[in-house]
Specification:
Layout: H1 3-15, E1 29-35, E2 40-46, E3 51-55, E4 60-64, H2 67-80, E5 98-104, E6 107-112, H3 120-136
Antiparallel strand pairs: 1-2, 1-5, 2-3, 3-4, 5-6
């Protein structure tokens, strides 16, 4: 998803609920994607104040979310309800697949190319975090 799609998701998420503003995050939000033939490693951690670190296997990049991004993320975290969601179990075994995960505070939901997908509400949070990672990914080492 590009910047425009990220903005559209943010606007949609900002319209959800009847609160004028979202409650603040009480813990860090995490994202991860790893695996594949090339051994991809992507991690993102967003602190409650909006400071974030995107990292690959060899590089890191720090940035700060805008107020709108932090509001959208807070609403997506609440909607994902990770505390009451179990990680899907792998259905098959395989090689070179990807593993995915999102977390909030002490709750984490993880899945892979070899499992069912988690609920759509969890995937919505993952996609928002994936877009943030792609927008702020550390430059590859030369």
């Amino acid at each position: 998803m590009g910047v425009w799609k990220l903005m559209a998701v943010a606007v949609i998420l900002m319209g959800c609920g009847n609160d004028a503003s979202a409650a603040a995050l009480k813990g860090s939000v995490t994202y991860g994607k790893s695996g594949g033939i090339a051994g991809v490693v992507q991690k993102l951690t967003v602190r409650p104040d909006g400071r974030a670190v995107a990292s690959s296997a060899t590089r890191k990049r720090s940035f700060t979310l805008t107020k709108a991004q932090l509001t959208a993320l807070t609403k997506a975290v609440k909607a994902a309800d990770l505390a009451h969601t179990k990680s899907p179990k792998d259905n098959v075994q395989g090689a070179d697949g990807f593993s995915f995960g999102v977390g909030y505070d002490s709750h984490r939901v993880a899945w892979s190319d070899f499992s069912d997908d988690p609920p759509r509400r969890v995937l919505a949070l993952y996609r928002l975090l994936d877009d943030l990672y792609e927008s702020h990914a550390p430059a590859p080492a030369h």
